[in-house]
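Sample intake sheet
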Amino acid sequence: MTAIHLIEGPVGAGKSTFASRLARELGGVHVPLDQWFVHLFSPDRPATDFMVWYHERKRRLLDLIWTHAVALRPSGTTPVLELGLVRRSDRDEIYDRADEAGVEMVVHVLDAPRDVRRERVRRRNSERGATFFMVVPDSIFELASDAWEPPDDSEIRERRIHLVSSEMTAG
């Protein structure tokens, strides 16, 4: 059976560009949580209490995407998941699911300097190209960047993690 590839990193690191390219190379399918989230939930976004609303829906969507990814594998299709798991504990939940299901998980972690990422996000907001799913204002960029927990040495040792340099994520 094919492995499931997980693409993670802070906002603007080049995850969508990398994931799309990897899916093409592997003959797989790129499943970006943001695209699904925007399509399914944005029309219902509340004016207040956004974070509570967001986290509840993200959890449900993660469950659905994981089920979908596991279902793709018997067909020989390689799932390339871009899930926005910014905290180690969030990634640990996916690792546990993979372990319980006996699924090989290959993790690609991307990063780039904050100023480079900020400029990429601003450009994506204005150009609205292939990797655009929603406007990310500077305030949300900063909040998301501050929330990012890169893998530590133990996570890298315990999991099959490939660190991808910023030169490989230029998009």
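Comment: The domain at 4-169 is CATH 3.40.50.300 (Rossmann fold). The chain is about 50% helix and 15% strand.
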